[in-house]
Amino acid sequence: MKITKEEILYVAQLARLELDAVAIEKFVDQIGTVLDYVDQLKGVDTEGVRPTSHAISRTNAFREDEQSSHLDPDAVLTNAPEKENGSFIVPKVVG
Length: 95
Hints:
Layout: H1 5-14, H2 21-42, H3 73-76, E1 83-84, E2 87-88
Antiparallel strand pairs: 1-2
């Protein structure tokens, strides 16, 4: 499929882009190549092929929400470099 300079300029205007003559010629060639490839894909027989949203099968990797007991505060703070009154001591990061 051939795309014209006028169509490139129209799309550039819609996108508020300023293109010089060299860029316009480059886009005519590049977008023309992409459109030719899309035309090739239109010729592929897809009868009986189910539509897909991903190239590979995907499943939800999240686990079910289950209620459980909380961690023991003393066990959580066991390896803390600094602790005070049951809390972690961390460096100040806000000015």
